[in-house]
Design brief:
The complex is a heterodimer of chains A (248) and B (408). With 248 residues, chain A is of the alpha/beta class. Helices cover 38% and strands 24% of the residues of chain A. Chain A has a domain of 173 residues: 3-Layer(aba) Sandwich (Rossmann fold), CATH 3.40.50.300. In chain A, α3 packs parallel to α6 and α5 packs across α6. With 408 residues, chain B is mostly helical. Chain B has a domain of 284 residues. The chains are: A alpha/beta (248), B mainly alpha (408). Chains A and B meet through α2, α3, α4 and α6 of A and α9, α10 and α11 of B.
Chain lengths: 248, 408
């Protein structure tokens, strides 16, 4: 299996502080992966590198069959070639309706001229209804996103991510602010999505990670500390030290 | 038309504009009873042009969130471009007539010299500056009305947006652009007659026999038509997905980038489009005003534009029109000396001086207490409320309820 995303030897430092230290990470085209690690381990910086928000000082980030380097692309270009990102805090456009939010995310031409003449086709309406139903927002299509609850906003953002049809999804704490039932739904959804594309989940909640039942990468001080099944990494002495040392 | 159906305000605005134009024509000196003086018709026509500029400002600020304090520079540039043709062609007429009085027909070189000394004698230049190279031709100069402000907006916008300058820094930058342009035009060797500016623009070449009474109505109708067409165009632009994207950029541009939209491209698109609309508004305004000089580019002019849009209600197109019309007409009433002075204990309240204080105060009050401006009144009348559920989210276990709702 060739890798979809290959990060090798990436280093990032902010004012002398090494946020990412020679990080190497690979994920296949249909794989679910959880990234865990204590605060400051570099989880968010890792996502920033992949999505183009932060440029690494050294190292390489390759994506897709043609091994496109993501380092030369802008955030928008990276998003267009198939990397979707969900933020920790739900970021939806509060002043716009659920339909409008989903329409924005829907896979389509992104250049201003094409967007200007874009009109909703029947297939788009069906796709939006479908996505909304998938995340339980079917009855809220006409409501403004700002009126939704925290959990519903998380759902909307997940639906927007799906609408983009990315090949790689980076999901930052998807279950934050969700009820136990909603968490279960999220788990099932993520496992399902990972059957057709790559999903990277950053999560603090061990119980949630356990339910994902996937390979786990433990980050510590900007580098990979351990990798393998959850049971495997939780038996690793270094991992125990890092977590216990921080009172987890 | 489906598009018009989804926007009831569109029909109301266009119908109002049409009725207003007809009423004004019937009451005009040129084509009606003469209740309204020609100078007042001109004021109304100019107001329509200002409304057009405010409409553009609403698109760039209210929708795309770019608080440009330089759009009146594009307005004035449009005026300068049309003014060059008006002044050149009119002077050519006068010079040709004067030279023909000598008996022999004048040579082209004589006419050229005559025009140059007529226009540029005041700044002591005897050569026609090269930027007047197209001034003899109406179509070419009309092209410049669009091209010059458009290219300026392109260069400026490309540099500023690519460097990701946003918010108040961008506003300051646009303000600096306006000021620099104004200071440049104030120089006598700028090629645009320095602080004398261009004058006599109310006289259309070839129409010396047509009275200003008729001309004022023509320009009034042209301004009303331009405003109506621009309203249709901008309503269409903001109604679809494009409008959704630019509003999203206004609210959270980083998020829009992660959706795959090139934020800089959209900003540049809107910036150039609005600059061109402002330029066309200026090209209609200055023939009615009759004179243009670099003071028109003063940074305050662009700030006024922002104030109109804020008072009218940004983020809604009719709000911009209401704001511009209301404030600029009120302003000309107060500053025109028609408002009665109010004698007070410690002196007299002279509105010419105090109007600006009143305007500034109302701007502050609107920003603080009615952020939706005058346009917001229509929302209250229609019973629309923006989502404001108050209270903090209750957290995961109570799902979608907010604090106050849960208390009920």
């Amino acid at each position: 299996m060739t890798a979809l995303l290959e990060v090798s030897g990436a280093c990032v430092s902010f004012d002398g502080f090494r946020a990412i230290n020679n990080l190497t990470f690979t994920i296949g085209p249909q794989e679910l992966r959880a990234i865990i690690g204590p605060n400051g381990a570099g989880k968010s910086t890792f996502m920033d590198i992949v999505t183009g928000k932060t440029r690494p000082d050294s190292g390489s980030v390759m994506f897709g069959e043609k091994s496109t380097s993501l380092l030369k692309l802008s955030e928008a270009q990276i998003a267009r070639i198939g990397v979707g990102r969900k933020f920790q805090r739900p970021t939806v456009f509060e002043d716009q309706t659920v339909t409008e939010n989903l329409t924005l995310a829907l896979k389509a031409a992104r250049c201003p001229w094409r967007v200007l003449i874009w009109r909703k086709a029947r297939a788009d309406v069906a796709r939006i209804a479908d996505l909304a139903a998938q995340v339980g927002l079917a009855d809220h299509l006409a409501r403004k996103a700002g009126e939704l609850s925290h959990g519903q906003k998380q759902w909307l953002e997940i639906a927007m991510l799906l609408a983009q049809e990315p090949r790689l999804l980076l999901v930052d704490e998807p279950a934050a602010g969700m009820t136990p039932a909603e968490r279960e739904h999220t788990t099932a959804l993520l496992v399902d999505i990972a059957k057709t594309r790559a999903v990277v989940v950053v999560e603090h909640d061990m119980e949630f990670v356990r339910r994902l039942n996937c390979k786990v990468t433990v980050l510590h001080e900007g580098a990979v500390l351990a990798e393998g099944s959850l049971d495997h990494v939780t038996k690793n002495q270094q991992v125990i030290d890092v977590y216990l040392g921080r009172g987890e | 038309m489906l598009f018009a159906k989804s926007k009831p305000s569109l029909i109301v605005v266009i119908a109002t504009l049409l009725v207003f134009s007809l009423v004004v024509t019937v009451l005009s000196e040129g084509y009606g009873t003469g209740v309204l003086s020609t100078s007042f018709i001109k004021t109304l026509g100019k107001t329509l042009c200002l409304c057009l500029a405010a409409l553009a400002m609403d698109l760039v600020w209210g929708y795309a969130g770019i608080l440009s304090l330089g759009h009146m520079a594009f307005f004035a540039l449009g005026g300068y471009m049309i003014g060059m043709w008006l002044m050149y062609a009119r002077t050519a007429e006068i010079v040709t007539t004067a030279l023909a009085g000598g008996g022999l027909p004048a040579t082209p070189a004589e006419i050229q010299d005559g025009i140059t000394s007529q226009i540029f004698g005041v700044v002591g230049t005897s050569e026609l500056p090269f930027i007047w190279g197209f001034a003899h031709s109406f179509p070419l100069q009309m092209l410049l009305v669009v091209l010059v402000p458009g290219l300026l907006a392109l260069c400026f916008g490309w540099l500023a947006f690519r460097a990701r300058v946003t918010g108040v820094y961008l506003s300051i930058l646009t303000q600096a652009m306006t000021l620099a342009l104004a200071l440049y035009l104030f120089q006598n060797d700028s090629g645009l007659r320095g602080n004398n500016g261009l004058s006599g623009l109310q006289n259309l070449p070839g129409l010396s026999s047509t009275s200003q009474d008729s001309l004022s109505i023509w320009f009034f109708w042209a301004s009303a038509a331009a405003l109506g067409l621009a309203y249709l165009l901008i309503s269409w632009v903001v109604s679809g997905k494009f409008g959704s994207v630019i509003r999203a950029i206004r609210d959270d541009e980083a998020r829009v980038r992660f959706l795959g939209y090139s934020v800089e491209g959209y900003k540049l698109f809107v910036f150039i489009l609005t600059a061109v609309i402002c330029a066309l508004a200026g090209a209609l305004y200055y023939p009615q005003a009759g004179i243009i000089n670099p003071a028109e580019l003063a940074p305050t002019a662009s700030i006024y534009l922002a104030v109109w849009v804020a008072i009218g209600g940004r983020g809604r197109l009719y709000g911009a029109i209401i704001g511009a019309a209301f404030v600029s007409l009120l302003s000309s009433w107060f500053t025109g000396g028609r408002a009665p002075s109010i004698p007070l204990v410690f002196g007299t309240l002279n509105w010419v001086d105090w109007w600006q204080v009143l305007l500034g105060l109302s701007f502050v009050l609107v920003t603080l207490f009615a952020p939706k401006g005058i346009g917001g009144l229509f929302d209250s009348l229609a019973g629309l409320h923006s989502p404001n559920r108050r209270g903090a989210p209750l957290g995961p276990n109570d799902g979608s309820l907010q604090e106050k709702e849960a208390l009920k």
